[in-house]
Amino acid sequence: MQVFELPQYVAGHASPPHVRTGAEGARLREGQGAQGAGCYEVSHLETGCENVAVTVRLQEPSLEVPLRSSLRRGALSYSSILQKRLKPRLRGCLPPGPCPRSDSSACALASAGDGSVRTPHDPVTYYTALHIAVLRNQPDMVELLVRHGADINRRDRIHESSPLDLASEEPERLPCLQRLLDLGADVNAADKHGKTALLHALASSDGVQIYNTENIRLLLEGGADVKATTKDGDTVFTCIIFLLGETVGGDKEEAQMISRFCFQVTQLLLAHGADPSECPAHESLTHICLKSFKLHFPLLRFLLESGAAYNCSLHGASCWSGFHIIFERLCSHTGCAEDESHMDLLRKAETVLDLMVTNSQKLQLPENFDIHPVGSLAEKIQALHCSLRQLESYPPSLKHLCRVYIRLHLQPWPVDVKVKALPLPDRLKWYLLSEHSGTVEEDI
After folding, report:
1. Is the pTM of this model over 0.85?
2. How far is it, in rounded angstroms, from Cα 126 to Cα 15?
3. Is the CB of residue 38 less than 8 Å from the CB of residue 87?
4. Which of 28, 140, 232, 236 is the most buried (most CB within 10 A)?
5. CA distance 353 to 327
6. Which CDD domains does the record cross-reference, listed alphabetically (predicted)?
């Protein structure tokens, strides 16, 4: 008979599978020798195995009486052991075959007659053995359970979380996430809220303490759907939009960390086909960055240089337009010509407008695109507006078309870096660069 030991469970985590004494009653014997004093062996337990024993080491002598009482009533369970702060160890039969050693396994394995492994859910949290293996970050145990018949996509009965959902939520569980994907877990299965493992990984990230970047990368490479949407309408960009909002008025160092995390995750999502310009506007990352283009300038430039639409990608400029948003922001900002913040806003607005112009062969301005700027910079803002109107009214020049086609061909980001590497004269490269362009790395 092969022997398998279950190490202790930690309070606050999932407790072991339910085990009760059989109809014959239980025998309690104080251990001496190898087990040591204060250990009690309980046999005749109904676990699906023959001749299974549980060894309980008491933390406090006072717990001996309630333990004996529970045994006499035939009501001893692992959950009650956990509540009494006891440390259980299960010794039971395993199916023939090698058993990988693990310093902290996640569950007790019970051998069924057909050679498969029973993984009953825990009576307190309703986690299965496979869930617990993931929570304890034991990829070898995860594989052992799955190969012996555990349902790899089984969901718990409270949150409906799958093992893959749990593995995706913590960076430390990356080995379990990789193992589950290798074993065939459904990467696009959703819980009762419509949340997939990818959305779990995004929602559990805060950009400061929890970086799920590698989990997200692994899920995307495993075929995760970037168009997944919950029943509440949350998308893959909902978490990023929320985190960007956290950078406003917060700690500067934390804001930089969050911005860097959002930038990296957005890169991954766009590389796998995510559309940041879909409506509704409050779920559109491009729209959010346009509204605060001065604050989120590096991310916005990345989006535009990666081919993101500057209008609603579903309904066009009639839904929302980047040109309208930029000029609305410029006209609402009061300041003087000597105001450095206003000049910085104007410079970044010019760069964003230039990126939008070079992002399409035919300029698409919204209807009723009229502005009423005020202040000392009103003349410059009006000149920008007039130049766009003129570009829309006349057929584009050959020079402009060449610039657009070359920049489109060099997408995705970083387009300006690729332009500088072209074997062209400096004057021509200067023309191909975006206005006032710098490196995104410096901005981030």
Report:
1. no
2. 9
3. no
4. 236
5. 10
6. SOCS_ASB6
